[in-house]
Design a protein that fits this description.
With 212 residues, this protein is α/β, with parallel strands linked by helices. It is built from seven helices and six strands. α3 packs parallel to α5 and α5 runs parallel beside α6.
């Protein structure tokens, strides 16, 4: 059982496979690069590859729907699209916020914006009788930044992630804390995990995935 990719959308094989999907992984490039051409050309493997391996014993099919550069404002439309595209999916895993925190300088308002958008995404999933699962925003590869920038990036995560956790706790949504697990050696560049990092994210998501 191999992971599926939204980048294959429009092919006969995709049309056949989309009704077999159990777990939809949505989000930005931490999830996938489906706007960057065939998966074999992507710069890094991403966690859904390894989540699929963990899910084989459970007989669960994973689809990778990440879009590089995505911001949380686009998240609700992405999830709405995937809810229609994968009608039989049971779980929707998404993580957003990395690009938002890197785009807007006001961390407090940006964090509220992310959580508001993620909340709408989760509500759409719940309204369809399905299960949302979230993961938080990881620290960057701070070795690759000047000290001042690395501190700013770190502080943004330290502000946002506890607020995201409070939101998930309040609404009973499983949250994988990947931020506490990833270190500089788990990145392939400034922001994107290497294979080791992607495996860590996959394991953290799998551990909080509700098992029926």
């Amino acid at each position: 059982m191999d992971v599926l990719y939204v980048v294959e959308r429009g092919t006969a094989a995709f049309e056949t496979a989309r009704t077999t999907v159990d777990i939809v992984c949505a989000g930005d490039s931490l999830t996938g690069w489906n706007n960057f051409g065939p998966a074999g050309d992507w710069p890094y493997r991403t966690y859904p590859d390894f989540l699929q391996e963990l899910c084989v014993p459970l007989g669960l099919q994973v689809i990778n729907g990440g879009i590089a550069g995505e911001i949380s404002d686009n998240g609700p439309q992405q999830v709405r699209d995937y809810l229609d595209l994968f009608p039989d999916a049971r779980y929707f895993v998404f993580g957003m916020g990395t690009n938002d925190l890197g785009t807007w300088p006001d961390t407090e308002s940006t964090s509220r914006r992310i959580i508001g958008n993620v909340g709408r995404m989760a509500r759409m999933v719940l309204d369809r009788g399905k299960q949302p699962v979230l993961f938080n925003v990881p620290h960057a590869n701070e070795w690759m930044f000047p000290t001042r920038i690395a501190t700013e990036v770190h502080d943004k995560r330290d502000y946002h992630n506890p607020r995201l956790k409070a939101f998930c706790d309040e609404h009973g949504i499983p949250l994988a804390d990947i931020c506490c697990l990833l270190r500089a050696e788990h990145f392939g560049d400034t922001l994107h995990p290497n294979d080791r990092g992607a495996k860590i994210i996959a394991k953290a998501v799998f551990q909080v995935l509700p098992k029926e």
